[in-house]
Amino acid sequence: MSDTQFGKGCHLHLIDGSAFIFRAYHALPPLTRKSDGLPIGAVSGFCNMLHKYVEANSGPDAPTHVAVIFDHSGKSFRNDLYDLYKANRPPAPEDLRPQFPLTRDATRAFNIACKEIEGFEADDIIATLAHQARDAGGRCTIISSDKDLMQLVGGGVEMLDAMKNKRIDSDGVVEKFGVGPDRVVDVQALAGDSVDNVPGAPGIGIKTAALLINEYGSLEALLDRAEEIKQPKRRQTLIEKRDQIELSKQLVQLDCNMDLDFTLDDLEVRDPEADVLLPFLADMELRTLSKRMADHMGAEAPVIAEAAPSAPSAEISAPVAVPFDAEKYECVRDAEALQGWIAQIRERGWVAVDTETTGLDEMVVDLVGISLCVTAGKACYIPLTHKVGNDDLFGGDGLAEGQMPLEEAVALLKPVLEDPAIIKIGQNMKYDAKILHRYGVQVAPIDDSMLMSYALHGGEHGHGMDALSERYLEHKPIPIKPLLGTGKSAITFDKVAIEDAVPYAAEDADITLRLWQQFKPKLHQRQVTTVYETLERPLVPVLAQMERNGIKVDRDTLSRMSNAFAQKMAGLEAEIHELAGQDFNVGSPKQLGEILFDKLELPGGKKGKTGAYATGADILEDLATEHALPALVLDWRQLSKLKSTYTDALQDHINAETGRVHTSYLQTGANTGRMASSDPNLQNIPIRTEEGRRIREAFVAEEGNVLLALDYSQIELRILAHMAGIDALKEAFAQGQDIHAMTASEMFDVPLAEMTPEIRRQAKAINFGVIYGISGFGLARNLRIPRKDAQGFIDRYFERFPGIRRYMDETVTFAKEHGYVETLFGRKIHTPDIASKGPRAGFAKRAAINAPIQGTAADVIRRAMIRMPDAIAHLPARMLLQVHDELLFEVPEAAVDETIATAKRVMETAATPAVQLDVKLVVDAGKGANWAEAH
DNA sequence: CCTGTCACG
DNA sequence: GACGTACGTGACAGGG
């Protein structure tokens, strides 16, 4: 121990440990420890940074005291002030988490004090120590570039941006914030911070905040005299959001009076000790650095063995090319063998899982077997309920020999599948998790190779396992067809002989693991980790729950409607035949075309590429002026559609056990980030016509409950206004104007008061056209006007909103340059066709223009859905469906108002804090006993 | 299995 | 100057 007290002449260095870690993590490829695959990229970078720091600070201006300060995991006292503080922070990446404790070990190995305190952030400890140093008359340098620490500068305290090697003193703070260090918190309180989710004053950034603080002297003075501000919006914000601003100040104000259980004197600089540091570096297998440090300290470099032969060879980052060999897959038939696999999984920390079932409907099918894979090429299959081949001979459905009881296998695997420290990897894990859920297992945490591929390669190709395996593993998976057969003679997987099932099933797990190994590091390299971690992975359990919830559908209502439709159709059919002068199949476009254009000789018959006449709704509508028949066919078609697709087909989807309809969401369904719904598709239930809309009356709430429908109002146009930076549109949305009327007024010079529905309709079509990548032809067809008129509208539109054209041009240019476009949340949508020639190029261009808008809207509602379960956990509400810009809930009547308020808030704030839109998001809510009423 | 048609956002 | 065009989906029926 030193007997000198910290005081004048002393110089304290405080290193922001978290900043070091994240910089190291992001700057380096995801290295792993050779012997066992432990991720150590961040640790390695961290150690190098400490080493560089030590070397750089041995000169005349060397510090006398030093500490590395870390954030303690978990919540801080700021979360008690504001529960959403830092709520937007994605969880640390999987491969970084195990490295956090190692960076503490590294700090101690370098013989540097290492401090963190539960309930506080590193910044508070730094603040307290900096104040202590200053008060003792010493100097303090904070090694960080975090602007939150700038409030501490002054009186001997400075910051050092180690990256740029730039010192920041009071002048530097003024440069950054426009005010001195003593007023930094005031500016931060106003400007807020999207990274930490500090709300601040909406619409006020650092520039404006500094202006105001400099004018009024302090935040308190400003808020007290807010009435004097000239700008009406600014004045209103400051008055209305006073509480929020004061809360923000509390959040950004660092605690410089913490009680610490150590003193400055404990932080005295100590030289690293070779017998501590070198073994640590050797353990991390950092050869270069341990040699360098050994030289530096005049010690002998430790010997680091090449990959220990006994250790498992799998690594996350650099999978060795192991050939696929079905012979090597193991069939697990008893508890003892399964225990062996479980031990391997525990040792490894991750496992690829695949389930085999009797069908595809997760709500109904039974588990047949489970495959596991821990290392590329090493997988097993656990058959559980395979039946004996010729069971009908004996009249029973006896289990095949050599299978362990399903309950026993599930009981053994459950602790592993639910262990928070073990990652369960799947290809479309939602499916397997839903199956296992029915056997009492809540699988978590999960990773999903399909979702990784979606984040990485969206727009490039599909994300099914077969396609991914062929493309990325150069291996064609064993097809399932020969095992199950096709058509009427097809069998279910439980009838497949176990010896045939093993290579197929185990291989799926093997492929999944290999894909995961390949994709995981790519997420980081391609900068889509945040997309995967915040928009994909956390959505899986949410969708699974929604699908399990299902929605109640009233069979009798559908059945009655179906009969009514059938009657009407029969009547129409008779009339149609009468007019045609012969019987024919109205449902056959081919026959209809021949009747219309050959027999009746109506004009405008155009044959498509197959040689058949086109008979689409637009063509029939045009013909309706010529003849009575086409209009009847249109009516017939509408009824036919409603009957076959909805009133009939929906009944077949009512689950016998729950009496509800359970759709399945395909998270990777649309390239833009939207989802698709299938079996049945509940995202295309009719609404536009009165007759179709009545289908929604069959979607009902349980007794004592109501359905709530909450939908985003004009979300895509709002996003366009933000992305293209169109002030007129932003302003219109801010004032709650009718956006289509405003567009019409702007374009056609008609005052809003004199707006006619017709003019507004045209403007509305143009607004939608813009989102789709407008063309004269498309608009003309939609509005049924001459093409040159449509082109005139478009020209006029671009004249009035030049920013839109700029946005479109820039987006296409970006797509050509990068091969993808991006949403505001960083989702990449690849546009491989953008470089092609001919009509494909036109499609690709329009898709590229549309994708960021549609995709950003899709990302927003995903964020809302991900936050929703926690937000409504205290309510008896259930989230049932998503229809692109709408969420449907079921809730007891007593909780309706609170559910609406909560869900609305979550949806309207879903973009923040990752993205601060210039346009507010507005959600409309409706309720009712059925979906028609709720809308 | 492909095409045309039509339901939704 | 001709060509062919609105963006994103899924289900059903007819027809080869």
TrEMBL record:
PROSITE patterns: DNA_POLYMERASE_A. The keyword Plastid does not apply. It is an enzyme of class 2 (transferase). Residues 692-895 form the DNA-directed DNA polymerase family A palm domain. It catalyses: DNA(n) + a 2'-deoxyribonucleoside 5'-triphosphate = DNA(n+1) + diphosphate. Residues 329-524 form the 3'-5' exonuclease domain. Transmembrane segments: none annotated. Pfam families: 5_3_exonuc (PF01367), 5_3_exonuc_N (PF02739), DNA_pol_A (PF00476), DNA_pol_A_exo1 (PF01612). The keyword Ubl conjugation does not apply. It comes from the Bacteria. One of its GO terms (biological process) is DNA-templated DNA replication. SMART domains: 35EXOc, 53EXOc, HhH2, POLAc. Keywords: DNA damage, DNA repair, DNA replication, DNA-binding, DNA-directed DNA polymerase, Exonuclease, Hydrolase, Nuclease, Nucleotidyltransferase, Transferase. InterPro entries: 3'-5'_exonuclease_dom (IPR002562), 5-3_exonucl_a-hlix_arch_N (IPR020046), 5-3_exonuclease (IPR002421), 5-3_exonuclease_C_sf (IPR036279), DNA-dir_DNA_pol_A_CS (IPR019760), DNA-dir_DNA_pol_A_palm_dom (IPR001098), DNA/RNA_pol_sf (IPR043502), DNA_polI_H3TH (IPR020045). One of its GO terms (molecular function) is 5'-3' exonuclease activity. Residues 7-270 form the 5'-3' exonuclease domain. Its EC number is 2.7.7.7. In addition to polymerase activity, this DNA polymerase exhibits 3'-5' and 5'-3' exonuclease activity. Belongs to the DNA polymerase type-A family. Single-chain monomer with multiple functions. This is DNA polymerase I. It comes from Epibacterium ulvae. The lineage of its organism: Bacteria, Pseudomonadati, Pseudomonadota, Alphaproteobacteria, Rhodobacterales. The gene is polA.
